[in-house]
Amino acid sequence: MLAYILISCNTGSETTVISELKDMPEIVEINGIWGKYDIFLKISTTDTNKIDQIVQRLRNHPDVTDTYTMHVLYGQGGSIDDD
C-alpha cells in the first residue's frame, strides 16, 4: 500500500518534525516543501493498519497542526516506468 501525506507544522518546527519522522521504515521519502503544507511524506507498507498508525502519530505530535492523507489507487497511473 502506498500513500502520500502532507503535513502542516507550527512555524519553525519543520526540521525537528522531519528529524523525528525520517527513521520510520515505512517512510520512503520525506521532504520539506513550500506552500499550504510544510512536509511531504511518501509511505509504503504491506500492513494497511500501519498507515493509520502513522497518521495517528502525526496528529498527536505537538508541532503538527494539520495532515492530508492520499491513498494511492492502484491501476490508475503509477510510475512513468510502469507498463
Automatic annotation (TrEMBL):
Residues 5-73 form the Transcription regulator AsnC/Lrp ligand binding domain. This is Transcriptional regulator, AsnC family. It comes from Nitrosopumilus maritimus (strain SCM1). It holds the Pfam family AsnC_trans_reg. GO terms for molecular function: DNA-binding transcription factor activity. Coiled coil: none annotated. It comes from the Archaea. One of its GO terms (biological process) is regulation of DNA-templated transcription. InterPro entries: Dimeric_a/b-barrel, Tscrpt_reg_AsnC/Lrp_C.
